[in-house]
Write a structure and sequence with these properties.
Number of domains: 2
Order of helices and strands: HHEHEHEHEHEEEEEHHEEEHHEH
Number of helices: 11
CATH class of the largest domain: Alpha Beta
Helix content: 25-40%
Distance between the termini: 23 Å
Structural class: alpha/beta
Radius of gyration: 21 Å
Strand order of the largest sheet: 1-9-8-5-4-2-3
Strand content: 5-15%
């Protein structure tokens, strides 16, 4: 059993993928070829964003808005403490300081109440209100932005986060690396009212290419223009007119061609993901020792993963391994406790929700083409140790 079966998907889209790759090989425009513009247009149409810029990775998609906003040393950017490293990494890359915020115990997304407390703590310098990173004596941070993460495919509570951020004068950057295709009150990921949004096309994502790739979305025309410049070494009117320090963040034309083929079946795959998730939840509903994923009212998950909580995780993972069922743990270490952030001086007591999740959570095989027989094998194994 595959954790994510990309081969099953390839069998469905093989001919279209090969046709589109062949078209690129014929025209030979491997950098910023016509497929780039076509993909950006189709992604904008799909999600409803005003502007879409493809880029080399989901990490670059997060980085570009921060660079465009001029965020840097002395600035605080609020990020959830339970997610992949890239969300905090880009903050550190621009020289700013990530301020970690604990997550909701049900959705695993950023807790708005704790975000408000963290903003107030940074503004006042009062660490009794919320844990803050240890800083040099007398150094104070300036709140600049918040990057909520749509963990495992569920949109963060933007209806609460955006007003909190705007009242404090903060930019909001949606990290939709795991949620492209999800919905919140009828609005799709990357068009939920944030200043900008970023997604990843890493192969295992709901919409993935065959390498690295990403995209950033915004309704702000000026921001889009700046990011277009930043994406290509900060270029101005022409290739050798560099007006700002940028990056080499372009998506390869071949990856755009692959994504165009996959986008044709993406809506159907999202429906299949709903079906697989529903089957899992139905089969596992009787396992009182498991906490199954929950989707809040008004939301549709993109189901990047199917993640379960179990107080005896080791036993559950072992039972699955004995049946040759692979598992994954997202995430074994909350971000504040990674080696690189040890100087910030956080302790597990500072973030009780993330600390507990990291001990109990695991993910089971999940993709649109997972069979009912495979779901039954997973459910039976878990029922044997978590009745």
């Amino acid at each position: 059993m595959q954790f994510v079966d990309l081969n099953a998907q390839f069998l469905r889209v093989e001919q279209e993928v090969r046709n589109r790759i062949d078209a690129v090989l014929r025209h030979g425009k491997y950098i910023m070829g016509p497929e780039i513009g076509q993909l950006e247009s189709e992604l904008s149409t799909f999600c409803g964003a005003g502007h879409t810029l493809t880029c080399a990775s989901g990490t670059d998609a997060l980085l570009l808005p921060l660079l465009a906003w001029g965020i840097g040393p002395g600035d605080a950017v609020f990020v959830p403490n339970f997610t992949f490293f890239a969300t905090a990494e880009v903050v550190s890359l621009v020289g700013a300081t990530p301020v970690f915020v604990d997550v909701d115990p049900v959705t695993f997304c950023m807790d708005p109440e704790k975000l408000q407390a963290a903003i107030t703590a940074v503004v006042t310098g009062d660490v009794s209100l919320h844990p803050l990173p240890k800083m040099s004596s007398g150094q104070r941070l300036i709140p600049r932005a918040v990057i909520p993460v749509d963990l495992f495919g569920i949109a963060a509570p933007y209806e609460r986060i955006i007003p909190i951020a705007k009242s404090a004068g903060l930019y909001v950057l949606q990290d939709a690396a795991q949620s492209f295709g999800c919905e919140m009150n009828g609005r799709k990921a990357c068009a939920m009212g944030c200043d900008a949004a970023a997604t990843s096309f890493f192969p295992a994502k709901p919409l993935g290419c065959y390498g690295d790739g990403g995209a950033v979305f915004t309704d702000d025309s000026e921001l889009a223009d700046i990011m277009k410049s930043l994406r290509v070494h900060g270029k101005g009117a022409h290739k050798y007119d560099n007006v700002r320090i940028g990056i080499n963040g372009r998506m390869d034309t071949l990856q755009a061609a692959i994504l165009l083929a996959k986008l044709e079946v993406f809506s159907d795959e999202l429906e299949k993901r709903q079906s697989v998730a529903a089957s899992y939840s139905e089969r596992l509903a009787g396992c009182a020792a498991l906490t199954l994923p929950s989707v809040p009212a008004g939301r549709v998950s993109a189901w990047a993963q199917y993640s379960i909580l179990c107080s005896d995780r080791d036993a559950a993972v072992k039972a699955l391994a004995e049946r040759d069922v692979p598992t994954a743990i997202y995430y074994p270490t909350p971000l504040p406790f990674l080696t690189v952030y040890e100087p910030y001086g956080y302790s597990p007591e500072d973030f009780p929700v993330a600390s507990r999740l990291s001990k109990d959570i695991f993910s089971v095989p999940f993709h649109p083409y997972l069979s009912g027989d495979s779901i039954a094998i997973v459910a039976d194994a878990l029922a044997s140790v978590a009745p």
